[in-house]
Amino acid sequence: MSNEENFPKAADADIALLLESTFPYISGGVSSWVNQIIQAFPEIRFAVVFLGSRRKDYGNLKYALPDNVVHVETHYLYDDLSSHGVDVVSRPGDAAVFSRVGDLHDAFRRQGAVDLSAFDEVTARMMHGRNLTLKDFLHSEQSWAFITDSYRRFCTDPSFVDYFWTVRIMHQPLWKLTDIAKNMIPVRALHAVSTGYAGLLGALLARSRGLPLILSEHGIYTKERKIDLYQSEWIRDNRNPFQKDSSELSHFQTMWIHFFEWLGRICYDSADPIIALYEKNRLRQIEDGASEERTCNIPNGVNVGRLAALRERRGEKIPPVLCLIGRVVPIKDVKTFIRAMLILANRMPVVEGWIAGPVDEDPAYARECREFAENLGLGDRLQFLGFQQIEDLMPKIGVVVLTSISEALPLVILEGFAAGVPALTTDVGACRQLVYGLDEEDRALGAGGRVVGIANPEELADAAISLLKPDNWYAAQAAGIARVEKYYSDELMFDRYRAVYMRALNHACVPGADFAPMRCPFGG
Amino acid sequence: MAGIGFELRKLLRKDTLLGLLQAYVYAGVISSGPWVLSIVGILIVGALSHAVVEPNVLVTQFQVSVTYLIASSLILTGVLQLAFTRFISDRMFEHQENLVFSNLNGAFLVTFAAAGMFGLLCAMTLFSGFGVVYRILMLSGFVMLCGIWIATILLSGLKRYLAIVVLYASAYAIVVCLALLARPWGLEGLLAGFVVGQFVLLVGVWLLIARQFHSPQFISFDFLRKGVIFPSLMVIGLLYNLGVWADKIMFWFYPDTSTAIIGPLRASLIYDLPVFMAYIFIIPGMAVFLVRIETDFVEYYDRFYDAVRSGGSLTHIENMRDEMLYAIRQGLLEIGKIQMLAVLVAMVTGPAALKALGISELYLSLFYIQTVGASLQVGLLALLNVFFYLDQRRIVLNLCALFVLGNVLFTAMTLKMGAVWYGYGYCAATFLTLFVGLYLLDHKLGRLEYETFMLQ
Fold this sequence. Notes:
heterodimer, A: about 525 residues, alpha/beta, Rossmann fold, 2 domains, seven-stranded parallel beta sheet, six-stranded parallel beta sheet, globular, B: about 450 residues, mainly alpha, two-stranded antiparallel sheet, about 80% helix
């Protein structure tokens, strides 16, 4: 079912999953989680709304669609950005409407609580073509006046053409989103699996249709976008060498960050409950503008029973294999793992490094990593395996490694624990919580592996040597198994989400239900 | 675009009076060379033949025949002139130089076929009572002129002005020599001289292009493909040439102002000569136009789009826009000043000139007003050129339509109002079109950044 024409279509559905660049086209933690949730609730009819950048950025489906996905629509926000050009004519534009757009931007620029009435009015106009169509944005004189005025007042980068195109590229997808919101099939509740564009779509739908919006954030979207932006070379920076301070972002990077921050704010304002994976992220959400009483944690869970069977398939000896399980992309910092393998190669003659994960998401980075390993002369001691089934992989490896510079709550660590494999990870996201435990009772279970600093191959190599010592290893294995069974089973997660879904669906059934906070079913 | 602007700037950079003078003389020669040479050539042939060719009316018949050939071929090829030049410059921009020569041959073939058919039809009907030799000479002259205009405007588009002037000078030298030698054969002799000269010119321009451009095919018709040819340019070319000739044609066929010269061809003795003389007086204006547009305006035009593309600040972009507008204003103002002088010179030398040509002094005022009208036409030409640079084809089209309508309407009115008003129609039409054009230019440039950014 890779053909979009073959996607199931339905007249309505229970819950719409709003997915940005994940399931079913991209494999990875969030996508597996979505797949897991859909399959856990066969009685709920799901609609999947996939938002992508451009069609050509995605290959075939990475997941078979479960039967209870009754409706799928895919939208590409950055396709045909430049396919206009025919019958482009000048139009005056409505000054009053653009003045409201100005109010909205002024509200964004002020810190603190925001009155979203301007947002509702502006998006309603966008949605229903009332004097604020895409053409009004692209071609009207009022729009030009607005853009040039903003440039003069706020832009610190001299290049007008770059400012102009940043504004265009940033805003143009918003009309696609209002279109999607307008035309989506009727559903009873919304579930956005990130903020960003998917979260904004959730907010648009929730506010225009009066539907409950559930937000589950795995990572923190704005934080991940910031990392992308720091690394991006496509965003122009026209400051001269005297003005430039490399620790300071270019104006256009700042524009993008503010933009994504506001997508998040709007989504937080419209969602209830706002679910984080772990405590650190929940606090971050509050810091970013989420109201505390709507937030809660629901950690990921794994099918402990199924994975426990893999422990039987392990051999007598501890395999001297460090396996990085994850997509080969910059955020996973695969190069630090490769560097650590070079250090280890000199100190432990038998150790091997495997990299198990798809290489097709960022082919240029994957090629760089391969060339890097070749140049270091690692030979067979470092292997790129591509995507692997967990069931095949886990019995053959000694340690699950994560070198990411950013993570949420990586399932692969829990899967490793359940399968009897300790973890060696960087201190990001929930990793410390998973390896060492959260509260007193949890910590008493012991360490399920080691946590090291990011981008530190020396420390990683030391920790690997220590962890591979049989005494340490067996202790870590036992601690990992105990922790995953007690806190991170999928049954626990499903029970919690069942409660969230039931509340949302019941809430939606009550006629005239207001948008009062529903209260998160679980405290902090 | 480099060629001519570069040459002129080099001369101007000398920053001496002589350098300035050189620049303007150079500009004057290359911008008005072809038509001055044609007019002068035909006048010389006429003047030198008066004593030899008997009866004298044959000389007039020769001049009128050639005038009709030039007017009709210009109007007919107007359809293709601009559209084809645009096609070529677009291909040059895409670095597809290998399409130039084969498409020129294609354009020649199309033009020859159309002109040949039209000419043959005229020869069979309107000129059925004439001798075979006259008809063949007229037909071949007509077809070759059509080809020459296409090649000339192509070479102007390529900024090969100097080559054009040299070729025209040689061709008309041949015309004058041969016509003088062939005087004993009367009208046919003079015409044969003219036709041979045109043949040399046609082969010359063709060889010039053939030497610069090479094509894998000898002939191709890419320029006719839909999407690459601009229909608006075809209409503009036709309308502009119609506009220029409308008043003259009306004077030729209005009974009170014209006489039958040869067969269906009529001429207006009182109107034609002052008009041709007036055109001589716009050479300084043309020179200023070329210098100002090709140096100052183009410089800021380039800087404007450079600022847009390569990240200039909005203030800088607006400054360049203002400089561009200033360069246009200065250019038009200078054309105005120099043409004012030209009109004064025309007034001073007019009586003597008319006397020498044997025209009644009653038509002096007609000559003056024609000089004013022709001066305004230089301004209009400069303005249209600016609009072409800004790729505002719709505006140019409307202006040309206004020019044609105005010229026909006002000329008709003056013909009714009487001899005192002759010439004012053409003058009023150019003035009106120029005035409307300036207003539109002001409006257009005021929103140039908006249109550049938002209408893409």
